[in-house]
Amino acid sequence: MSSHRHATRFALLIGFGACVACGGVNAVTGRAFAADSVAVSGAASGAAGATALTLAASATDDFGPTSDRPWNPPRPVSRRRTWEHVLTFPGRVISLPLSGLGILTEKALYKAEETALIPKANYVATVVPQRTGISVMPAELGDRTGFGAKFGISTPFLKGNWRNFINGEISGSTRGYNRTRIRVGGDPFSLEYAYDWRPQEQFFGVGIDTGDDSVSSYAAQQEYVRAMIGFRWNERPEFQDFRTHLEGWAGPRARIMRKGHESGRPSFEEYYPAVALPTLDEHLEYFIVGGSFETDWRVGTPHWSRGWRFFIQGEHYGDPPTWLSIRDARGRGSTFTRWGAEVETGFSFMRDPRTLRIMTRFVDQIVEEGAEKFVIADMVKLGGAQGLWGFEPGRFHDIDGFLVRVSYIFPLVRRFEMNLHAESGGVYPDVWEDLSLDSWEHSWGLYLRARSASRPVASFGADFSREGIRIRYSVGDVD
Fold first, then answer.
1. Could you tell me the residue range of the domain that residue 260 belongs to?
2. What confidence tens digit (pLDDT) does each residue in 179-231 have?
3. Is residue 446 domain-shared with residue 300, that is, in the same domain?
4. Pair 203, 244 in one domain
5. How many structural domains are present in the chain?
6. Which pTM does this prediction carry?
7. DSSP readout, 128-168?
8. Is residue 179 part of a domain?
9. pLDDT digits over 85-138, tens only?
């Protein structure tokens, strides 16, 4: 029995040695062990070498180990082939200034991050006004208003929602525009007073078919008082605001249309007397009841890259009670109702997001009485910041309006991205009856946007239309 066991062990040792001599065949799996290709090819000979090479070659069919020499190209391979250099050369030439600008911007942003410039600026813009109650910022008066500033004051000694129990601001610009606003109250109730003077507004006539050779100027003065109630929910702690807002308001408003104050441009009553004379220099009084609902679920960095936003608003403009008139209760304006809605959505792809956005907006106004006193300052406007950016501000006026915009945002270099957009829309006496694709005006534009890791910080670009090119720039939160 003992001799039998010794014979068995001896036979196993002989078999194991034979496997090693044949190139390292695994007795269990039947595959060759990984070995240096040169050593195996030099050691393999006769039937044993042929067996090892055959097993190794068959193993490469399923990505197993092999004894073959690794493949190398016959000569060094260039980064691009000749035809690829030819095709990409125009793009490389065009993007060369952007690459240099991107390097400078990246270094500037790195310096800003090292010196904490952005947090310091945010501190000055948010924390300092909260603690002192005083703020000085650029004015927000719209297109063609010149350079301006806004001075604000609040009550910082109060806490929580009552911190801005009294909140006032005064804005002015180099072209004579000014605005005063005072708000008293907290959440959810408040009372607001505002006075607005706009002396150099443009008017090209009523309708979508007006020309650009008869531009005139008008001035508009507005004053209102309104009580408001508002509710907010779906908080976003990272932005210190809320996604969803529900508001309502009511109060009197007085509006006066004046002759235009723009030098070298005729006043609107000279070119359009039928529209201007019924309301020129007349105090028109209204009592407004309105409400709005907005919910915003857009997210993403460095620009918002996915989600959606919905906004709807309705207002009724009627005759005010005598005791609630601001100027003159006998100055009755038009009675009308205004409805407006805006929907925006977007989606992205790839890691550095390439984002496609779609936005649509419509305004429907129903004039019930006094259509002859429906002032042009209450009409829907397209052109400039109101939409159709490639046209002059206030280029199109009418009762109703519609606009759709498609945008594509994509990265260029690490700190720069491009915004390409196209817009179409128009103004109409009745948007439901007169809206048609044939009547739409179109504009498109491109913007180079500098961005930090979290958001765009500045943009510069141009918008194009059939009437020319408009250069636009902005600094701050430009998304």
1. 187-475
2. 999 999 878 899 999 999 999 999 999 999 998 888 999 999 999 999 999 99
3. yes
4. yes
5. 3
6. 0.74
7. HHHHHSEEEEE----TT--SEEEEEE--TTS-GGGTTSEEE
8. no
9. 787 777 777 666 666 666 776 677 667 666 666 666 666 666 666 677 788 888
